[in-house]
Each structure stands twice: as structure tokens, then as C-alpha cells.
Amino acid sequence: MREVPVEQAVGLVLAHDMTQIVPGKFKGAAFRKGHVIQEEDISRLYDMGKRHIYVMEIDAGELHEDEAAVRMATALAGQGVLLAPVHEGKVVLKAATSGMLWVDKRRVTEMNEIDEISIATKKPYSHVDAGESVAGLRPIPLVIAEEKIAHVERMAREAVGGMAMIDVLPYKPQCIHLVTTGSEIASGRVQDQSGPILREKMARYGLGIAQQVFVGDDTSDIEQAIRSAHAAGATLICVTGGMSVDPDDRTPLAIRNSASQVVSYGTPVLPGSMLMLAYLRETVIFGLPGAVIFDSKTSFDLLLPRVLAGIAITKKDIAQLGVGGWLNA
């Protein structure tokens, strides 16, 4: 620390908090440790009775926490992310649009292994709304070695496929079709519950349902409904009902017969373990178990943002859901 006259302190960094007391009105920090003295601060310092202050000198090769945080945030943020103003050495990243949160988990983890670096994000692949905070980052000390920040910047430039470290991917236009199975629903004996619930769920993402058809339990009828939806331009087909192991539940077989690729029948997620995911060329097919209708969050909710953002899902992606896949309260 070094003592300097107030009028000579512009551009220098406060070494400690400075408290101001206004009797009956205010008592608190007028200036925080690490604050960079501005020309307009001089008058207030005089009002506080200050003629000299202690300042922190930043040596060559070091950065103040504010500059370090801004540099890190700029390096990590993609086009779908906005930077909030730096505050006390921290920058918050916010979603510029609604969509799926993308995080390069491996590289962000490696960045956090650098001493005195802190990068915290929300869970990747989750839905976020425009304006929602998605991450916060900061250096730990008030002054940090510039090389550590430069290391973070170099790692960010190594992104594969042009993807940013942290981004929000907007959802792609969708044409969603529902195929509702079950003779009890097709005959009118039981009222359909899947349609209203899935419409409400899709509305949260700003999407609607283009068409819903009702078929019985015949495998060939379910297959034909899937192929007809695909021919009509569906980008996402949700098949509800008939996903358990009962002899009348023929949906998994119908999806297998219709699909060009089956990614998985079953997920390590509860509720929603009986979910099926397949592709008919570029069209995504979900076989949705009853849990999707009765539970607020299932495997379907974990996978849907990826599908809407146009990210292809692999068996490994589904296998990784098992750690943290117990969604029951």
C-alpha cells in the first residue's frame, strides 16, 4: 500500500473499504476495496474528510479483478449471451434469447483447475429464458497474475467446431406431431390426457402442436401414423401410450419398425425410464411413457431442449444422464 494525496489518486486502486457516515441517514461503504478512483470521486472524498488515501499499486503482469473478470467473460461468452456490468470483480452472463444453455464442460472444468479462477454455470443442456442469468465468473483475489487470465483466453480459443465456452442456442423451427395410441382412447372410452399436457409443455418453449392423431394398439396402424407424420413434414414426433412391458403395448416395436435409427429404449432416469428415442432420417421420434403425463419432470424434459436446439443425441449422452438422473423428490 502507498499513501497518496486524494487529488493525485485518480486511476489508482483503493487498498481497503472506505466508510462514510451521514448522521441519521447513512452508514456504510462509500467506496469498496479495489475501487478505481475516478475524477468525480474527489469531491465526495473531501466531503468525507479525506485528504490522503491508501492505494494499491498493480505491477506489470498483474490485473485488477474487474479487468480480469471482463476479459474472461468476453473470452467465454457466445453470441447468445450478454455480459452484465462488472461488479466487485464479478461478471454475470445472461441469456440474450430463450433456448438451450450450452457449456463446454470439459474446458470450463479445466479452466477452474487454474488457481484463483472461478467460473460457475447453470446445468448445461437446460432451457433458459431470455434475460435469465446462466453463469457468473470472477478471479478470486483483488489482483491476479495476467498470465492466468491469458491462459483462460487461450483455452477459449481452442473451442471445437466454433462453439463458445458458454452460449445459449436458440431453438430451431419445429413441426410437432402427436401420435396417441391405445384402443381405450381411440374408442372414446377414456379421455386423452397426453395432448393437453404436451401442448402446455411445448408452449413453455414457444411451440405448438401441428397435429394429433389417435390410433389403437395395432402395430401397423402406429407405424403408418408415424410415417404419415414424417411425410407431412414433422420434425418431431411424440408417440404416447403403449410404452410399458404389457402384451398390448406395441409402441416400441412400431417405432423400431418405422425408424432409421434407434438411439435407446430406456433411460437411466426416474421418472421416465421407459422413454424411447429414435430417428427417422432427420425427424426425431420420442416414445413417451406414462410418467411424462403424470410427473412434472422426467427424462423427456432433460432431452427435449437438445432436440429443439438441433443437437443430435447419442446413446452415450443418455447414459450420462444416470448420474443425477434420480428426479424424484
Automatic annotation (TrEMBL):
SMART domains: MoCF_biosynth
Domain of life: Bacteria
CDD domains membership: MoeA_like
Pathway named in the protein's UniProt entry: Cofactor biosynthesis; molybdopterin biosynthesis
InterPro entries: MoaB/Mog-like_dom_sf, MoaB/Mog_dom, MoeA-like
Keyword check for ATP-binding: no
GO terms of molecular function: metal ion binding; molybdopterin molybdotransferase activity
UniProt catalytic activity: adenylyl-molybdopterin + molybdate = Mo-molybdopterin + AMP + H(+)
Bilayer-crossing regions: none
GO cellular component: cytosol
Domain MoaB/Mog positions: 177-310
Enzyme class at the top of the EC tree: transferase
Family: Belongs to the MoeA family.
Name assigned to this protein: Molybdopterin molybdenumtransferase
Phylogenetic placement of the source organism: Bacteria, Bacillati, Bacillota, Bacilli, Bacillales
